[in-house]
Design goal:
Chain lengths: 568, 83
């Protein structure tokens, strides 16, 4: 048996899904968090049934790609749990009525039930159940309230098989139902609503946006640096380094195995940035430098997502984003990209047209550095002074915007206007934040660490075989001539295809000047996305557009790298 | 007796309320707005608009929708007379 979770965007389907299946999925407070369907399973009596989290949809007459997916999936479901936002009964009932006209049993979850009281909304659940002819259960997916009752009543789900109606007839029927079951009491504006209005009006909203972005950045750095300085570095230098020195002695300070595991000793000591052994730099990059930033970035991002702030930022930036052929909502994938480009490129599905998705995905893969890359830039370039870090990020931002301007003029097609629902502010639940943070950090550890170790391993082998020298000599004209980097810099570029953080790490032993480091970091950030992003890019854009994006990437990197080299 | 005032959602001032009387545009636009709950007969209140042809934010029932400047110009609202 297949159970489908169907409902409007941002009614809490993903939280609901996690509750009933125990499968942890990312849930946020903005429409379109789920862009692809997810499967899980639950026990229903003795039977193990499949549960599918369908992307949010306002109607079964699809108006967007995500809605098409939803309608398609409805065809092979056996039962629908219609998740409804109790605070917006009228609009949500439209989809409900469409569902009730189909031949599929339905049970309704009246979700966000806890929000109705303070909004002065009173719903007569028994009456609603009678009028619709299907079971209705009030729920709060975030806390789990009502979920058991709902699951217990799943066998009661039925299909009243309402006659097919026109849109106007449906709205008329909804008007009747709402008039009978819902009473509103007047109440004063809450502070959250005042804040909501203030953060979307330009006069107050723009300063608020600047403050939110500024504070977020500060907190990410504060927590990230704190973890590195007070936890990771003491651990590595105080605890791990002596152990590695013992291993080094055991292996006789040199030789193949020594260089592979411990790496090169720098002045008789282990230098975690430069030694490049699997057990030294290979562990230090992911755990010592990147993990703290991944942790603090996703902590802050989770807070922004769950509070409901991001769609407001989208409205405020809509103007600017139109210049680069996108609308404001494209800021959400771009911000996700500051964590990792892979989910960011997938999130471009919330954009309606193919043109927008191409521009957004291309810009992300070229000019939005992921958290791992940023952490290494802070670590390596930051040592030379904050102004150099600012140069790297400033350049990437200018590239992002300028390339956007150009793509907007040259890519054919049409970019639609912004049309989004602005969710209310919600106080994020600490439990939900913790789960989401754990999922993302765990995802990083699971996917990144094997590749980092593999990359460091491969580098040692290829060095020994002399393969790198051949590549370095062949590409010297570009790398040295145009970018002003030592010819060995190309190795970092090659490694960048596997992992960007390791690639930046490879610049460390080259003894570069601050200016060269800036050029190197910018080039590495813009050049080929790591293999994981590359695969997703191909899957989301198709082979032809992916090649186009790659061509743009190569051209822009060469131009920007050479220009920077001339200036610095 | 003066005729009631009809303004598009983009001409309304922040804080003004009224009833949607017409959405002029293609079938696709009408349907998308309708799916979001914006259709003739609905009461709307303008929350804000962004300068330089930015999006317009409307409040309908218990939710808010941000609508691009072009689309907002196609939503005709009969505005409440100032009391």
């Amino acid at each position: 048996m297949k159970i489908l979770l169907v409902g409007n965007p941002n009614v809490g389907k993903s939280a609901f899904f996690s509750r009933i299946t125990g499968v942890k999925v990312i849930a946020s407070n903005y429409p379109g968090t789920t862009v692809e369907f997810r499967k899980g399973s639950m026990k229903l009596g003795e039977e193990e049934v499949e549960v599918i989290d369908v992307p949010g949809s306002y109607t079964l007459e699809p108006t967007s790609k995500a809605e098409e997916v939803a309608v398609e999936m409805l065809k092979d479901g056996d039962l629908v749990i219609d998740v409804v936002d109790a605070t917006n009964l009228e609009r949500n009932l439209y989809l409900t009525l469409e569902l009730l006209e189909r031949q599929i049993p339905v049970i309704m979850a009246l979700n966000m039930w806890d929000d109705t009281a303070h909004r002065g909304i009173n719903i007569d659940v028994a009456k609603l159940e009678e009028l619709l002819g299907v079971p209705v259960v009030p729920t709060v997916a975030l806390t789990g309230q009502g979920i058991k009752e709902l699951v217990a009543r799943i066998p009661e789900a039925t299909s009243p098989k309402l006659p097919d109606r026109t849109r106007d007839e449906r709205w008329a029927a909804i008007g009747h139902i709402v008039a009978e079951v819902q009473t509103l009491t007047h109440r004063h504006h809450t502070w959250r609503e005042r804040l909501a209005d203030a953060s979307i009006k330009p006069s107050t909203g723009l300063p608020i946006a600047a403050a939110v972005v500024g504070v977020s950045f500060y907190v990410i750095r504060f927590i990230g640096e704190g973890l590195i300085g007070y936890v990771m570095e003491p651990l590595f230098i105080g605890l791990w380094s002596p152990l590695m020195m013992k291993l080094s002695a055991l292996l006789g300070y040199s030789g193949f195995w020594h260089d592979l595991l411990v790496g090169q000793l720098i002045e008789g000591e282990i230098d975690f940035f430069q030694s490049f052994g699997v057990l030294t730099t290979g562990l230090f990059i992911p755990f010592g430098v990147v993990l703290p930033y991944v942790f603090s970035f996703y902590l802050v991002l989770g807070f922004l997502e769950d509070s409901g702030y991001l769609p407001r930022l989208a409205v405020l930036l809509d103007n600017v984003m139109h210049r680069i052929g996108l609308h404001g909502y494209a800021i959400i994938p771009a911000m996700l990209g500051l964590g990792c480009n892979v989910p960011a490129i997938m999130a471009t599905r919330i954009l309606e047209s193919r043109r927008e998705r191409f521009i957004a995905a291309t810009l992300i893969s070229i000019a939005v550095p992921c958290a791992a890359l940023q952490a290494m830039i802070f670590g390596l370039v930051g040592a030379h002074g904050a102004q150099y870090v600012a140069m790297v990020f400033g350049t990437l931002f200018v590239v992002w915007f300028t390339l956007g301007l150009i793509l907007n003029r040259t890519v054919r097609g049409f970019s639609p206007e912004l049309l989004i629902e602005i969710p209310p502010y919600r106080l994020p639940s600490w439990q939900a934040l913790a789960i989401k943070l754990w999922m993302r950090v765990h995802g990083f550890l699971r996917e990144a660490i094997p590749i980092v170790l593999l990359a460091v391993f491969a580098i040692s082998i290829l060095y020994t075989l002399g393969v790198f020298d051949a590549i370095a000599n062949a590409t010297a004209p570009v790398v040295s001539g145009l970018f002003g980097l030592p010819k060995e810099g190309v190795i970092a570029i090659v490694v960048g295809f596997l992992r960007k953080d390791v690639a930046i790490g490879m610049l460390a032993p080259l003894a570069l000047s601050a200016g060269q480091l800036v050029v190197g970091c910018v080039v590495l950030a813009m050049f080929f996305p790591c293999i994981a992003s590359f695969v997703v890019l191909g899957r989301e854009l198709g082979a032809r557009d992916m090649l186009k994006a790659t061509g743009i990437m190569l051209a822009v990197t060469v131009i920007v790298g050479s220009l920077l080299n001339l200036i610095l | 007796m003066s005729a009631k005032r009809q303004l598009t959602a983009r001409e309304m001032h922040a804080g003004q309320s009224g009833v949607v009387i017409q959405i002029s545009g293609g079938h696709g636009l009408v349907r998308r707005l309708e799916a979001l709950g914006i259709r003739p007969g609905k009461r709307v209140t303008k929350v804000s608009s962004m300068f330089m042809r930015g999006p317009v934010t409307l409040q309908i029932d218990h939710f808010q929708v941000a609508i691009g400047y072009g689309m907002a110009g196609r939503i005709l609202v009969e505005v409440d007379r100032a009391a």
